[in-house]
C-alpha cells in the first residue's frame, strides 16, 4: 500500500474519532484512582464536621460500630496524598481518626468518637474551578439508643466485607503441595500501621520485609511450601489470618511483629516468642496481647460478627496437642535465636493473642524487637541482622520437622 493511501486512511480514522467521539479500545486508559489531598475536623462537642478533599467524585458508604463508638467510611481504593506535615487530629466529637487500604480495591477512614453520635447529614460537594470535590459528614451528639438504631438502619444497605473472611484466595494448587506447609503472618498492614519508631519506622513494613525474606530462606531448603498471609500493604482481620492457615492446612503458623512499649522503652529490647494462653505469663505479655488484639478495632471491623469458638471433646484434644507442639517449637526457636540476636529476659512467654487461636495448628507469635527502643529500631532495619535471625528460625523449623523431612527424603 502506498504512503499516500496510508496517509488518507489515517486522516479518515482521525476524522471519525473527532466527529463521533469514539476512541479505539487500545487508546482507552483505565480510570485513575481518586486522590485524597486533604482532610480536617471542625466543630465542637455537640456538632462536629469531618471533611475529605479529593480530586474526583467517588462512591462511599458510612457505617457505625459501638463499644467503642466509631464511624467507618468505606471508599474505593484511593491514594492518600497528604502533605508531609499533615496530621490526622481529632476535634469535638471525633477523638482521633486514621486511614488506609483495608482490603484489595477498598480504602477506609475510621473516626474514633468520644461517645454516641447521630449522622445529621453526609454529602459530596462537586469540585468547582480550583476547589476540590469534598465529602462532608456532619455528626451531632446523640443518646446510645439513637446510635444503635442508626447503626442497624445503615447496616441494611451495602455492608463492608465480613471480618471473618480474608480477601486472599487460597487456590487448589496451593493446597495440593506434598511439602510441609508453613504460613508466615506479617502483622498489621494497610490502615493499621502497628507500632511506629522514633524515626518513623513502621512495624507493618519491617515485618513484611522480614516475612518475605524468611519465606525465601525456607523455600531454598526444598522441604517447605511457604505462604504469606499478606504480600503487600493491606489489612487482614485477625480471624482472616487464622482462616488462611486453616484453608492451607498449615503445619506451622508464625505471626511476625515488632511492637513497642511505654514503660522501660529505653532499657527493654530484644526478641521474644509467644504461645497462646488465656492467662498471660506476665504484665508485659498481657499488654502486648491487648494491643495486638485491637488491630480489628483500629480498622473498623465489627467484632460482633465473629462466631463463637467451637468447643467439644475432640476440639479440646486437638487444641491441647497444638498447644504442646507450639511450646515445643517456641523452645527450639529461642535456643537458635540466642546466638543470632539479643533476647529479652524470659523470652518464652504466653498470652491470649487472637491470631494464635487456631485449635489444630501449632502457632507462635514472634516479636522481633521493640520499635520503642532506639537500638532495636536501628537493628530491625539491618540486612545483616535479618539474615542472622531468619537463618536461626530456619534451623529451628528444620529441627521441628526433622522426622517429617527424613520421611519425605526416604519416600523420594
UniProtKB/TrEMBL annotation:
Reaction(s) this enzyme catalyzes, per UniProt: Hydrolyzes the link between N-acetylmuramoyl residues and L-amino acid residues in certain cell-wall glycopeptides
An annotated GO cellular component: outer membrane-bounded periplasmic space
Hydrolase listed as a keyword: yes
CDD domains found in the cross-reference section: MurNAc-LAA (cd02696)
EC top class, as a word: hydrolase
UniProt-recorded Gene Ontology molecular function terms: N-acetylmuramoyl-L-alanine amidase activity
GO BP terms, alphabetized: peptidoglycan catabolic process
Name the record gives this protein: N-acetylmuramoyl-L-alanine amidase
The protein's Enzyme Commission number: 3.5.1.28
Pfam families: Amidase_3 (PF01520), AMIN (PF11741)
Keyword list, A-Z: Hydrolase
